[in-house]
Amino acid sequence: MNIRRFKAVAKKEFIHVIRDWRSLGISLAIPVLLLILFGYALNMDLNQVPTIVWDQANNPESRDLIELFHGSPYFNLIARTDNYREIELALGAGKALVALIVPADYGRNTLQGRTARAQVIVDGSDANTANFALNYSKALGMIAGATLHGSTLEMVSGRQPTRITLKTRAWFNQDLRSRNVIIPGVIAIVMVIIASMLTSVTIAREWEMGTMEQLISTPVTSSELILGKVVPYFCVGFLDLLISFVVGRWWFGVPFRGSVALLFILSSLFLSGSLFFGLLLSIKLKKQVLANQAALMSGYLPTLFLSGFVFAIPNMPWFLQKLSFIVPAKYFISILRGIYLKGVGMEVLWLNALILSIYSIVVLKAAHKNLRLKID
């Protein structure tokens, strides 16, 4: 590869990027926009779910249970009622997502040591919130039972009762904030979109504008053209990575426990692969709109749905689990969460890094093989 020709191609592409200030501005605004959108809108935490209460017992024991729900950060008591009809209307209209019904015999059963039951009704049309609400309701019910009986769990060993209190703790994301998991994954989304927007139209634009014939007439080689085209967009993508890192760390307060240098090095592997993949589509399709749409369909959608960014891969059908192994973002998101939340290094992430390296080399060689500097 001739360095002089490579620099000339890269300079030409840099000039085009700078002159097209609208595309450049959009590509730099996308990280902030996506981080705000995913960081605030895609919130899987259960907070202040509107709850309606029917206290049929109306005694100190039932009021303690209701206060336990009201005092938690998960439920917000918005109304009280004395019939099922109002509960049905509140849940049907979406004014409440949870209903707590305490039966009339609740206090008597607790005082007599019998099993005391209360009913929790959730709006199942929002399956995610309903599932979380049911789980937190069960946990609060266990806390209420422990308070009444003076222990969390009682086990009998021989003739002597042994009281055991089970304490739980979450590592790496102690508060279980979904935002700490989502924000690092957005970096993968940003890079895929940037690659889809930028490199997927580079070669196609040359063909549509008629300038490819001029490039063919020069001594420039396929390697010089490919690398010269990618370098400016790599710089833009790297700047987007820096913006995403700063916004995620200091705006959303996502903890960062790993090496900054390792983050940027491994992110460069994924960014390179995504750029070369977009360039490959541009070479094969030779139409800007078609190449851009193909890049979004084959890059953005698998990254969103099959990488583990939002949906847990083990919960997917087996054929989708197998399909996820060919999605590069799956390995990059594992790297991001490992560096951000766990603070691990190459001793843990080496396999993911190796897969991303192989992916980058494969798409680079495919792009080089398919780029023929001649007129059909």
Describe the secondary structure blueprint for this structure.
Elements: H1 3-19, H2 21-41, E1 49-55, H3 60-71, E2 75-80, H4 84-93, E3 98-102, H5 106-111, E4 119-122, H6 127-149, E5 153-157, E6 160-164, H7 178-198, H8 202-209, H9 212-216, H10 222-250, H11 260-285, H12 288-305, H13 318-323, H14 328-342, H15 346-370
Parallel strand pairs: 1-2, 1-3
Antiparallel strand pairs: 3-4, 5-6
User: How large is the radius of gyration?
Assistant: 28 Å
End-to-end Cα distance, whole Å, is 25 Å
Note the run of SSEs as H and E.
HHEHEHEHEHEEHHHHHHHHH
Count of distinct structural domains = 2
Helix content: 55-70%
Strand content: 5-15%
Average pLDDT figure: 83
Structural class comes to: alpha/beta
Q: What overall geometry do the principal axes of the alpha carbons give?
A: elongated
Discrete helix count: 15
The main sheet orders its strands as 2-1-3-4
Poorly predicted parts = 150-166
Sheet with most strands = 4 strands, mixed
Task: Describe what you observe in this structure.
The structure is a single chain. The protein is of the alpha/beta class and 376 residues long. The chain folds into two domains: 234 residues, no CATH class; 116 residues, 3-Layer(aba) Sandwich (abc type-2 transporter like fold). 64% of the residues lie in helices and 9% in strands. The strands form two sheets. It has a four-stranded mixed sheet with strand order 2-1-3-4, with helices on both faces. Strands 5-6 form a two-stranded antiparallel ribbon. Helix 1 packs across helix 10 and helix 11 runs parallel beside helix 15. The radius of gyration is 28 Å and the shape is elongated. The two termini are 25 Å apart. The relative contact order is 0.12.
